[in-house]
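Researcher: I've been going back and forth with a colleague about how Pyridoxal phosphate homeostasis protein might be arranged in three dimensions. Neither of us has a model we trust, so I'd like an independent prediction. The organism is Bosea vestrisii, in case that matters for your notes. Sequence below.
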Amino acid sequence: MDQLDPSNAPPSDTSLSAADIERFGPDPVGSFRANLAAVEERIARACARAGRERTSVRLLPITKTVPAQVLRCAFAAGITAFGENKIQEAMGKREALGDLAIDWSIVGHLQSNKVKYLSRFAREFHALDSLKLAELLDRQLERVGCSLDVYVQVNTSNEDSKFGLHPDALLSFVDRLGEFPRLKPRGLMTLALFSSEMARVRPCFALLRRLRDEAAARHPGLTGLSMGMTGDFEEAIAEGATVVRVGQAIFGKRPTPDGHYWPGFAKAG
Ligand SMILES: *Cc1c(COP(=O)(O)O)cnc(C)c1O
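Model: Here is an independent structure prediction for Pyridoxal phosphate homeostasis protein. You can compare it with whatever you and your colleague have in mind.
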């Protein structure tokens, strides 16, 4: 028998539950690897269509609702950066997976009483949306001696259900980020309108890009655009996304309704 490449070996200390197997299939490592390759291919094609280098776009896999023991399979499939929406869920997984070298990102709204948890282990935060939060994060990071890459979330779809700054409030917000030396502003983030009509989705991405151009003129580090998910990442790449946050195309459909993550969420046509 051929020697197994260690990166191909199934995780040894894992036993998947019947529910895990029902949701992710009998060979999660194999299916995550295949899904990842398919997403990679779509990213590469979207880059080529837009005349962009493949290296200008980073894929951030979003692992919310995927149980820790299944994430061992994701790691075995070559995924080493995990994005989570909720801090409690992320912390539980991080505890369970402490033996793996994983880069954790938090991409969802953070309540101020959770700041101390985030500063302990997250490498990136994609949902900075208030000065109060910036101040608390900065203070906590100072305490633990770390810094944090942050993306400022903007509400580009004009929906009450979405978190993020109003576009008109962005530039004055960005002007104050220098007050928080532990925060490393990397760019802007948005959730586009949830719609299958790309003609309605695309303007959200275009707006974020315009805002980024204005913000970067005042804050040179703010060049990133974290935008695009399973349903719309190709459109986002066409509009300049530098980070796409993709969950379901890699891990399959989620059992929880999206309203769990976005209060008041309703699918817009
Ligand atoms: C869940 C989530 C995503 C990924 O959505 P998919 O439809 O699974 O690709 C992206 N960004 C945020 C903030 C999320 O919560």
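Researcher: What would you highlight for our discussion?
Model: I'd start with this: Strands lie at 58-61, 81-84, 103-106, 124-128, 148-153, 183-189, 224-226, 243-246. After that, consider the following. The radius of gyration is 19 Å.
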